[in-house]
Amino acid sequence: MKIFLCGFAVAMAFTAAGEAHAADGKAVYTSNCAMCHDNLAPKIGDKAAWAPLIMQGDQAMAASVVKGKGAMQPRAGKPNLSDADIGAAVEYIESKSK
């Protein structure tokens, strides 16, 4: 799948079943996302906070990470995070927040 942001095509690694191809979502989350999302809103597991974001779909959530949103910098401030890593982390967050 591809996401188009500001004229760029960003390839996302999602299978039809919604699983990331390349990365372990929990490991990516723990290394790159937990510092904020274990302590700041939206906190992982907060179903009410994540519901409207999850309803937008994997691609929209991944695009928010790639582009940055609110206090979160583009690619969560980790420019070396791959699209597959971001996709895996998004899916992990969703699995813990539904």
Give the helices and strands, then pairings.
Layout: E1 2-5, E2 8-11, H1 25-32, H2 34-37, H3 47-55, H4 58-67, H5 83-97
Antiparallel strand pairs: 1-2
Helix pairs in contact: 1-5, 4-5
Question: Which characteristics define this entry?
Answer:
about 100 residues, mainly alpha, two-stranded antiparallel sheet, 5 helices, globular, disordered N terminus
Characterise this structure.
This protein is mainly alpha-helical and 98 residues long. Helices cover 47% and strands 8% of the residues. It has helices at residues 25-32, 34-37, 47-55, 58-67, 83-97, and strands at residues 2-5, 8-11. The chain has a two-stranded antiparallel sheet. Strand 1 and strand 2 (8-11) form a beta hairpin. The longest helix has 15 residues, at 83-97. The model is unreliable at 1-21 (pLDDT under 50).
Poorly predicted residue ranges: 1-21
| Shape descriptor | globular
Strand-residue proportion? 5-15%
Count of individual beta strands: 2
Subunit arrangement of the protein: single chain
Strand order of the largest sheet: 1-2
The computed structural class is: mainly alpha
Number of helices: 5
Q: What is the residue-mean pLDDT, rounded to a whole number?
A: 84
SSE pattern, N- to C-terminal: EEHHHHH
Please describe the biggest sheet, giving its number of strands, its sense, and whether it closes into a barrel. Answer: 2 strands, antiparallel
Query: How far is the first residue's CA from the last residue's CA?
Result: 23 Å
Percent helix, as a range, is 40-55%
Q: Determine Rg (CA atoms, Å).
A: 12 Å
